[in-house]
Specification:
Helices cover 53% and strands 9% of the residues. The protein is mostly helical. Strands 1-2 form a two-stranded antiparallel sheet. A two-stranded parallel ribbon has the order 3-4. A hairpin with a 5-residue loop joins strand 1 and strand 2.
Length: 224
């Protein structure tokens, strides 16, 4: 795939004659049960994260980011805000003034030393607590508990011939990418993980991924 225009063309084609997502009814039922249970059990933690985020830096506690979901449908992915409100401008200035940062961003779409991240945001990201609001995305049907990493239109370009595998799934809160190194892995490996998952899905695979997600979080140095 050579351009963002090509990606958008694929999304328009995918939106016609939508098939059922990977997992169908069984996976969706499990998603609803787990998401509801998680929201109820983690309600105190959700409230604490919301309050701390709102009180420690200017701006809303929740952040919505446009991502590509099943069959090319766009949705707003929910997270606790981990960046300053002028993050786009800070990123632009950094990339214009720091060639090494620009090269790192071009390769991985992330920065190890990101000046946009707040002090509390760094803690939320490292622990992945910033992603807890995605439980509500799961209830809405935009995401799944397990699935490919939710990506932007620009990131989807990198999937090239694997784009249809990504579009056949609901993006996940966790997935093979999550338990395979997260930010320490390469983008090509992320694409490979998502493609393998889409083509080899089973409930047993989902159970295995969920079972190793918490240990993977505990030993991870950084979040996505």
């Amino acid at each position: 795939m050579n351009s963002l225009a090509d990606t958008r063309s694929v999304l328009r084609v995918a939106a016609i004659g939508s098939p059922a997502p990977v997992g169908m009814t069984l996976k969706r039922t499990v998603d609803i049960v787990l998401a509801l249970s998680g929201i109820i059990l983690l309600a105190p933690l959700l409230i604490i994260c919301f309050t701390v985020t709102a009180l420690t830096s200017p701006g809303p506690a929740l952040f919505r980011h446009r991502r590509v979901g099943f069959n090319g449908k766009h949705f707003h992915c929910f997270k606790f805000r981990t960046m300053v409100t002028d993050a786009p401008e800070r990123l632009r200035k950094l990339l214009e003034s720091d060639p090494s940062a620009a090269a790192e961003w071009a390769t991985n779409r992330k920065l190890r030393n990101d000046p946009r991240i707040t002090a509390i945001g760094g803690i939320l990201r490292k622990s992945s607590l910033d992603e807890l609001p995605q439980l509500f995305n799961v209830l809405k049907g935009d995401m799944s508990i397990v699935g490919p990493r939710p990506v932007t239109d620009e990131e989807l370009e990198r999937y090239a011939s694997s784009v249809n595998a990504y579009l056949s799934c609901r993006p996940g809160i966790t997935g093979l990418w999550q338990v395979s190194g997260r930010s320490t892995t390469t983008y090509n490996k992320r694409v490979a993980c998502d493609t393998f998952y889409a083509r080899n899905w089973s409930m047993a695979l989902d159970v295995k991924i969920i079972a190793v997600t918490i240990p993977a979080l505990l030993v991870s140095d950084n979040a996505c």
